[in-house]
Amino acid sequence: MTVESVRPEDATATAEPPVAGGAVPLLGHGWRLVRDPLAFLSQLRDHGDVVRLKLGPKTVYAVTTPALTGAVALSPDYIIAGPLWESLESLLGKEGVATANGTLHRRQRRTIQPAFRLDAIPAYGPIMAEEAYELVERWRDAGGVLDITYESFRAAVRVAARCLMRGGYMDAHADRICADLTTLFAGMYQRMVVPLGPLYKVPLPANREFNRALADLHVLVDEIVADRRASGQKPDDLLTALLEAKDDNGDPIGEQEIHDQVIAILTPGAETVGSTVMSLLLVLTEHPELGDKIRDEVKSVVGDRRVAFDDVRRLTYTANVVTETLRLYPAVWILTRRAVADTELGGYRIPKGADLIYSPYAIQRDRRSYERNEDFDPDRWLPERSKDVPKYAMSPFSVGNRKCPSDHFSMAELTLITAVVAHAYRFEQAPDSDPRPRIGITLRPRRLMLRARPR
Ligand code: HEM
Q1: Signal sequence: where (predicted)?
Q2: Domain 1-94+334-358 class, CATH top level
Q3: Interval 327-359: pLDDT, tens
């Protein structure tokens, strides 16, 4: 089925999508989305290509096929809004690229895009390699058990900040940013699936902790901007582009927009890459033979010198391990949109104002799209096999005008880190490790504690 065939020629469909089974009074399907969202979303396609869910008082439309999720992502009838974004607004603000729509969003994409273009990435190579080797050194000196949540998020924050905002001040801030984001992303998921608005204002310890983390992150971002201004420097980086950006009238953009933009880039950058590094390291403990093959590939491509950014495109097996990790453990595992017009999807009527959700996790694990769908098989990304993957069945960075600007940046970073650490170490889980999925706004192992054994 092509995207065109599911886009309406006329919006005359009158059928309502079926309601998914399993709703309970008050919380609707929210309780299932809190208790076991991955299993719940993964079976929704058995109920229909589009199904209705009740989240508290709201009705939400879940889209379950690759073709229809592609149609939603590419259609101008659906914008960034809805439960996920409402829950994220207190963090991301309304004026950053991740939450803006329409002309503001287009202008902001134009401002940030040059920093992420394919030809801009090699300049970040030395920083990415330095940070990857810093992990190897840290882990050698650490002895004992490594807290991989901390290690992964720290590396992700440092790479994003050093490449895009070139600041030594980030070294002092990285720990606080990581701690704040962990609290915020867990709390926001709950606010999305059980939208009980005023209850989250009750001064319970969890709500107080959430508010403290939120306030601290905003202070940190103001410090980052103030530090750069005070330095008087204007390096050729994303922060300079944001500080120098002009609005549609040619006037400098406001302080709030600058603030929201920094948050809207640093936050998804840290959270998604940090989560994916954790999933990658978990995979290496569960399939040690993958690490051995990566080590062999690094030896044959790079020899005895250090891995450099220029090697990345020849590390194809390593890249396929990264891709397969993104398939089975997509950090962005749930997405939402809102219909801005009465429209039609898969033969069903979608009313203006409707909230839609879909899950890259469910789509990318669907047995209808992948043979041995639950198996970790990097070779399924060999060119002769990957051509059989249905369109939009593998979109961990999404498609369309909201596609992650950082897809090339992230793939380069993740491939480099994986090559460097798997070449240096074998990984084993320590007894207090808990690799079960932690469901927040992003997906990652809950608590990963590893021993790194030098090869
Ligand atoms: C948007 C995934 C890394 C910045 C997105 C979206 C996805 C995604 C799926 C689209 C959201 C939607 O359609 O609603 C990922 C994954 C990453 C990653 C899987 C790594 C494994 C990064 C990094 C940065 C970044 C490193 C920045 C340093 C952004 C921004 C947006 C975005 C600013 C909003 C784009 C817009 O709305 O126009 N990302 N991302 N991402 N990502 Fe990423």
Answers
A1: none
A2: alpha beta
A3: 999 999 999 999 999 999 999 999 999 999 999
Nearest residue (by CA) to ligand 1, atom 28, is 269
Cβ of 449 below 6 Å from ligand 1: no
Cite the beta strand spans of 225-347 per DSSP E. 335-339, 343-345
Q: Is 127 in the pocket of ligand 1 (CB under 6 A)?
A: no
Domain residue ranges in the chain: 1-94+334-358, 108-332+399-455
CA 19 / ligand 1 centre spacing (Å)? 31
As its CATH architecture, domain 108-332+399-455 has Orthogonal Bundle (1.10)
| Helix/strand/coil for 449 | strand
Query: For residue range 215-235, what is the model confidence (pLDDT) as tens digits?
Result: 998 998 898 899 889 988 888
First to last CA, the chain: 48
- Best probe residue, ligand 1, of 74, 272, 334, 355 (max atoms within 8 Å of C-beta): 272
Model pTM score = 0.92
ipTM above 0.95, yes or no: yes
Type of residue at 387 = K
CA distance 345 to 356: 11
